[in-house]
């Protein structure tokens, strides 16, 4: 990956102009529900005269909005330049005084359009708010409590632009409110505006203080959870992984992302299945950051990638011709580093990485007599870390293969470590295995039964022979 002078410079090279309408001010997601509805709103007309006649708005606000509504782009640009204060006052006044959804929609589209035409125009609103002691944030964030979903999400997008495109930053309380709301939207069942939610995060997470706040709110977990959803589409995959890429530039956050058992596996899953170059590109860039940024976690990141079966995937990608030199360089780099680590890994390192990943497969190591004879005692390391993870998997996993292997490995530990029975009883593993004997899956029941027999019977080899003869 090339050296860049700033994150913005790097972002500009990483945002491909595919399936999106790229503007100098940001990216409007083509095909998103918000974009489609905004087009419909622009084609509507508002009877501003009825509002002024009903004394719902002032004569000054009526003159400004009615004139602005009829102007072309050049005339509007002139108004913003010469009468920006009045325009900002009018827009904010209309949002606070009017209640009809159709009208609020229209005003929000006007504001969003003028910001999209030139991102520096956020200063118009910030300057007016500062001069007149107006809470700009509540003017827009307050709208996310409305019922109309277009209003909610258009106001959110405008809030993100106001919070990122100028020098003014969201105060801590408003920031936590907004980021918490975005996080909740990601995991809200049936949310039809996920592209817009992701767009907000793509803007917000470029700002260091916002990134730190989102991380503290455990926002990565929500992003990963959404990526794990089925049928979210490649565009949303790209947007969400873009946010992970932004987060991965902070070494402390990257370290936690490596330690998060789900981040690298979900990136590996998407990479295996995606045929979209922009998605491949951002995943590879994120993986490289996760390998490089946290210096002390380089090996852990590599092991997690190896355990997620990325060596084979990267070997295929490494053989492909790429027009984009960044992809080629990053693929070659990661592939080389993973192969170096593969050479150094012991069987136990691989086994521990697999358990930490939370995805167990019947690889040869699980049924290797030699492995368990030589390594059973190592499950006691780091205050029984591996045993505790196996216990957690037996409690929480919904994957039958993972449950089978967790039960099997618990039994093998007891069989090969002299004081293993006492240890698993103290950790609650024995009860968990016994509960699995009533599982719906017959394979899980079988492995649980065998594990319990290993716990209860000392002469396992003799019992094994008897079982085979039955």
From TrEMBL:
**Pfam families reported for this sequence:** V-ATPase_H_C, V-ATPase_H_N
Give the highest taxon in the source lineage.
Eukaryota
Give the keywords, sorted.
Hydrogen ion transport, Ion transport, Transport
Ribosomal protein listed as a keyword: no
Which GO cellular component term is one of those annotated?
vacuolar proton-transporting V-type ATPase, V1 domain
Q: Which residues form the ATPase V1 complex subunit H C-terminal domain?
A: 345-460
Q: Name one GO molecular function term.
A: proton-transporting ATPase activity, rotational mechanism
Per the similarity annotation, which family is this? Belongs to the V-ATPase H subunit family.
Q: How does it assemble?
A: V-ATPase is a heteromultimeric enzyme made up of two complexes: the ATP-hydrolytic V1 complex and the proton translocation V0 complex.
Function recorded in the entry = Subunit of the V1 complex of vacuolar(H+)-ATPase (V-ATPase), a multisubunit enzyme composed of a peripheral complex (V1) that hydrolyzes ATP and a membrane integral complex (V0) that translocates protons. V-ATPase is responsible for acidifying and maintaining the pH of intracellular compartments.
Name assigned to this protein: V-type proton ATPase subunit H
């Amino acid at each position: 990956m090339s050296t860049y002078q700033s994150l913005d410079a790097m972002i500009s090279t990483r945002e491909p102009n595919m399936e999106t309408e790229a503007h100098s001010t940001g990216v409007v997601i083509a095909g998103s529900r918000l974009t489609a509805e905004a087009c419909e709103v622009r084609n509507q007309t508002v009877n501003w005269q009825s509002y002024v006649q009903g004394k719902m708005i002032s004569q000054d606000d009526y003159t400004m909005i009615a004139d602005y509504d009829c102007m072309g782009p050049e005339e509007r640009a002139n108004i913003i330049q010469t009468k920006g204060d009045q325009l900002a006052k009018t827009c904010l006044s209309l949002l606070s005084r009017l209640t009809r959804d159709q009208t609020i929609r229209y005003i929000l589209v006007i504001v969003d359009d003028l910001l999209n035409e030139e991102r520096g125009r956020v200063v118009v609103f910030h300057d007016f708010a500062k001069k007149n002691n107006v809470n700009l944030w509540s003017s827009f964030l307050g709208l996310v409590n409305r019922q109309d979903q277009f209003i909610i999400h258009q106001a959110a997008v405008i809030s993100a632009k106001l919070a990122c495109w100028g020098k003014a930053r969201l105060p801590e309380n408003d920031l936590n409110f907004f980021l918490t709301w975005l996080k909740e939207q990601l995991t809200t069942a049936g949310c039809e505006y996920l592209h817009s939610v992701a767009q907000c995060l793509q803007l917000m997470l470029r700002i260091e203080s916002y990134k730190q706040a989102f991380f503290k709110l455990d926002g990565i977990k929500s992003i990963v959870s959404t990526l794990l959803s089925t049928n979210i589409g490649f565009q949303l995959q790209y947007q969400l992984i873009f946010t992970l890429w932004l987060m991965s530039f902070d070494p402390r956050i990257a370290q936690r992302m490596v330690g998060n058992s789900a981040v690298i596996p979900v990136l590996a899953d998407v990479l295996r299945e995606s045929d979209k170059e922009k998605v491949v590109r951002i995943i590879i860039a994120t993986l490289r950051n996760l390998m490089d940024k946290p210096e002390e976690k380089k090996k852990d990141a590599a092991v997690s990638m190896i355990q997620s079966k990325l060596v084979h995937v990267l070997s295929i990608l490494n053989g492909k011709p790429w027009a984009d030199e960044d992809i080629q360089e990053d693929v070659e780099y990661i592939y080389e580093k993973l192969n170096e680590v593969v050479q150094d890994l012991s069987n136990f390192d691989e086994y521990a990485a697999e358990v930490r990943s939370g995805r167990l497969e019947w690889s040869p190591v699980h049924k290797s007599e030699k492995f368990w004879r030589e390594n059973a005692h190592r499950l006691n390391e780091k205050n029984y870390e591996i045993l505790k993870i196996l216990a957690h998997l037996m409690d929480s996993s919904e994957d039958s293969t993972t449950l089978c292997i967790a039960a099997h490995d618990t039994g093998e530990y007891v069989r090969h470590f002299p004081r293993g029975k006492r240890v698993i009883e103290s950790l609650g593993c024995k009860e968990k295995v016994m509960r699995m004997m009533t599982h719906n899956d017959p394979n899980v029941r079988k492995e649980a039964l065998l594990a319990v027999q290993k716990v209860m019977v000392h002469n396992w080899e003799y019992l094994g022979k008897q079982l085979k003869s039955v």
